[in-house]
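General statements about sequence and structure are easier to judge against a single worked case. When preparing material for the folding task, we compiled for one chain both its residues and its backbone structure tokens. The amino acid sequence and the backbone structure tokens for this protein are reproduced below:
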Amino acid sequence: MVFAIIDLGTNTFNLLIGETLPNNKYKKLFNTKIAVKLGEGTINAGYIADAPFQRGISALKQYQQYILDYNVEKEYAFATSAIRSASNGPEFVEEARIKAKIAITIIDGDEEADLVYYGNRMAVNMTDKISLIMDIGGGSTEFILANDTTVFWKKSFQLGAARLLDKFKPSDPITEEEIKAFNAYLKMELQPLHEAVKKHIPLELIGSSGAFDSVVDLIGGEFNGSVVSEEQTEYYISLEKYKVISKKIIASTLQERYQMPYLIHMRADMMVISTLLIDYVLKEIKLNVFKTSTFSLKEGVISKKLGLALR
């Protein structure tokens, strides 16, 4: 069976087309992403503005053509923070059904965190020790405390990079005072995470795709190391090298980030916020092992909903 998974994120719509194989395995046939920035200008006002609304519908029309080209037999489309928190989210879902012939399911933060766990577990060598999985989206950020068999705690926070960028509107480059205010806000909002960490003590941070892929690419570019590839799903991050990249990103202007050869343009505007989120977690939760996964929600759907594993 040929299947398609569409992850309708706040910043990016992601499409994965795969084919089932014997013994509950699958192989990837096609993978792409389109930057839609659904939250542009209005994410904290609680609706999707006209321009990003139409960008989203246009992206889904393109995806429908890929679905036809690959003779997809079953498709799964899941909407996350921007659509579920928007007053016109149901209108977007209906227009996608009519104009793009794609049926979208809106999932809550709890299910999103669950699917992120299943996706990361497929990509990363988890053990019986507890890991903290972190998925930075545009509208929300998910945290999961889990090992290879059990989720002990999970929560979706309204702390996505687009939402925070719109809320704080930092200078270019961001100032020390703005960083302090940002961290104080995180400390207040992430109290449930701090309480959970006291109970379920994680030994490592697993960064889930997205901005974490850019961390791998930036470190690889700076230190002549590995960049994200189709063949590898797990990367270990040197904390010393990460600190070099973190300082460089935080000190940069938007124009300088656009010129960084290993940072894709669609992440340039939100990379400072994402880096500050990562910095906060590494420092405040005192994690000494940092690795990343190239899998996330899409692969979680494949694992949990289809019961498949990568060949």
The chain has two domains: 2-107, 125-297. The chain has a mean pLDDT of 97. Residues 125-297 form a domain with the Nucleotidyltransferase; domain 5 fold (CATH 3.30.420.150).
